[in-house]
Amino acid sequence: MVNFGFSPLPAHIQDIDIADQSLSINLALNEPSFNLCIACGSCTATCTAGSFTNFSFRQMCHHIRRGENQFAIKESEKCMLCGKCTLACPRNVNTRNIIGLVRKANQNI
Amino acid sequence: MTNKTVAIIGGGIAGLETSIQLEKLGYNVSLFEKDQTLGGHAAKWDRLFPNRRHATEVIESLTKSIGKNIQLNLASPVNKINRENGSFVIETNGKSQKADAIVLATGFELFPASKKEEYGYGIFENVITSAELESMFSSNGKPLMTNGKAPEKVAIIHCVGSRDEKVNRPYCSKVCCVTAVKQAIEIKEALPNTEVYCFYMDLRMFGPGYEELYKEAQVKGVIFIRGRLSETSELEGNRLLIKSEDTLSSKPLKMSVDMVVLMVGMSPLSSTDNLLKNLNLEPNHDGFVQVKDYHLMPTHTETDGVFVAGACTGPNNITDSVNAARSAAIEVHKYLISK
Question: What is the pTM (predicted TM-score) of this model?
Fold first, then answer.
């Protein structure tokens, strides 16, 4: 086959059909408050790590819901476990436990 | 005409409308209002959403309809109601009055903004509530800072004391979104060079004309930022620094403003706790009065002869309160003719 120097672009859409939901399901089972997020951003706004790095707890959870687990696991390393987000969350999401479970998932992979 | 008497507790929109309807149905009405004036919270509001008519117009058209068979008891808080042979004895100001049925229209209280300490209400100057902004509109026609100057940058914070389990208010207060948009437009109209920012999580524009009001705010240049306020702090020169996440760009956000307006939600009225206990009424999961059947008997309670109307059952707008009041009046009538 002649190589014209072109190839298909990698898909740039959220394809929910092929998204890897395993970590999301695992988190919802072990920490049911994972599902209660209303995406208000209080966690990110109060985040100590977020002032110095581009860490957003809310965004990390969203990546997990869309199956972008490797990215989320890498992100989870930025958290310093200070717990301010737990104090701010209006839905009482156990943010600290979610970080712990995401890091644990990394060890199990 | 009958010689039966109905006691209405509360002289806000719901209480006034219930009284007027029951009088038209031929009953004697005793209206008990804890304050000196009628109209409840609406009387403290300058203009109403969605069409921004003056609140006084609505209240005056109600008070004009008060007929001679409505006995007004102002400055008469009711703390105790006893049952005697199927009728009720209302105690107020050391006197007692008899009634054949009761309608509770006791309303709500505004969420005490100082409970969200991190928002700076009561700590920093120029952090005000939506109700205080309304009285500024009533008296000055525009918001003014404590130094008498007009603010150049205003942040309006949605969901203060709503959708927040940290202050035991998990429910949506329903009317604050549209109130915020209305007030944002009013600030823009009064002070065209002032920048207005709304910090929201969701914009719940459920009523007729509400979405149009949101669009009008966009046209007038109100800026909407999707994120919940995390904290307010003070900068030099009495300016305020606010922080949130800009959730649409997934970055923490900070900005300096001259004034912060907190959209306080509707909370159950704590001063009626004893009265409700006295009437064997349970609060619902949000702390408001539990109705008998949310869908089919929204103005009945579990206690025979005691009916409810208005925001004592949960966050309501004026239309909801008027509808509930008319529904309660019909139900009282049905109850009294079968008695």
Answer: 0.94
